Amino acid sequence: MNQDNITLLQKHNLSVTAARLAILWAVRQHPHSDADMILKQARQKAGSLSKQAVYDNLHALTQKGIIRSIQPMGHSARYEPNEDDNHHHIVCRSCGHTADIHCEMGKAPCLDPSHTHGFAIDEAEVIFWGLCPSCQTNPVNQSNQTKK
Amino acid sequence: MNQDNITLLQKHNLSVTAARLAILWAVRQHPHSDADMILKQARQKAGSLSKQAVYDNLHALTQKGIIRSIQPMGHSARYEPNEDDNHHHIVCRSCGHTADIHCEMGKAPCLDPSHTHGFAIDEAEVIFWGLCPSCQTNPVNQSNQTKK
DNA sequence: ATAAAAATCTGGACTGAGTCAAGATTATTT
DNA sequence: AAATAATCTTGACTCAGTCCAGATTTTTAT
After folding, report:
1. Which of B46, B51, B61, B117 is most solvent-facing, going by the fewest CB within 10 Å?
2. Residue B116 buriedness (CB in 10 A; 0-12 / 13-18 / 19+)
3. Where are the domains positioned within chain B?
4. What is the pLDDT of residues B4-39, one digit of tens each?
5. Which CATH number fits domain A1-83: 2.60.40.10, 3.40.50.150, 2.60.120.380, 1.10.10.10?
6. What is the DSSP string of B94-126?
């Protein structure tokens, strides 16, 4: 329901706009879609919507932890609701199709995932994110992310 | 030495060219550099070198497994020698600086990495790569990679 | 060693994802 | 209801990477 999204946005100190509701709806509708697909979907819900608004909101929602983004090598960024359930992703080398991989929590973290969706897996790519020593004390050189 | 690289290329059925030797050298010199930095480095070694040759060769070398590439969200692709030692990467959210994380093999795969280079880690991103069910039987829809 | 065939390289135009910026519109606060 | 703050629109722009066609270099066959 829409009321859920409204209170969700308010809880995070984000003003409630048609654009935001439509984008949230679109991300839930088709998880793993890219900005362009979200634009198209959300436009139908919202009537009109600019490319920029989509990017602005995807960033805002990501920053608040409401949605999550991944960017598989060679593809544009994909977005999904942030369920905080420690799942990972599997991406098809051939067509780029993306699915979720769930871990069995508590167990050794999943390089032998519990359900592969029929994919033939050949590589597990792991990237850790954080702050390097110099940026911990002096996070000046912001080149991305937390831009505003 | 150069002879090593020459035989390495021959072993993989790649013709030995000045461009390739210079690019290999550059990747070894500064692992985790992007195409543009490799272009600049390799140009110094090779005299002249086109952007396209860099991309062509980075792809060829990657395909043969001689080098490896990663593409952290929001950054251009980075290249490194493929040492086949099952290491992963850590990327600074603030400045993009990238370092290697080595696993202790045989142990539960490393979401608690052995040496963090002083990074403050806040997320482990895992992407599995492979072929989806439909592309296993019919890998027609090549949108990337093995383009030629 | 040499010619023919195959692979690679060059340069320049182009694509597509994403960003910038300034003015207009919409939400929120008072 | 007015003032302020946040968001949205439009359009130009950047940057990584690709496409293409002709020129050059490397390899293979003689």
Report:
1. B51
2. middle
3. 1-84, 87-148
4. 999 999 999 999 999 999 999 999 999 999 999 999
5. 1.10.10.10
6. TT--EEEEE--TTSS--SS-S--TT-EEEEEEE
- For residues A98 and A32, the answer to whether their CB atoms sit within 8 Å is yes
Contact: A89, B128; criterion CB under 8 Å: yes
| pLDDT band, residue A72 (cuts 50/70/90) | very high
**Cross-chain Cβ contact A129/B91 below 8 Å:** yes
| Lowest-confidence segment of A21-35, A72-86, B18-32 by average pLDDT | A72-86
Please report residues contacting nucleic strand C, using a CB cutoff of 7 A: A 10, 15-18, 34-36, 51-52, 55, 59, 71, 76-77, 144, 147; B 14-15, 17-20, 48-53, 56-57, 60, 74
Nearest CA distance, B25 vs chain A (angstrom): 24
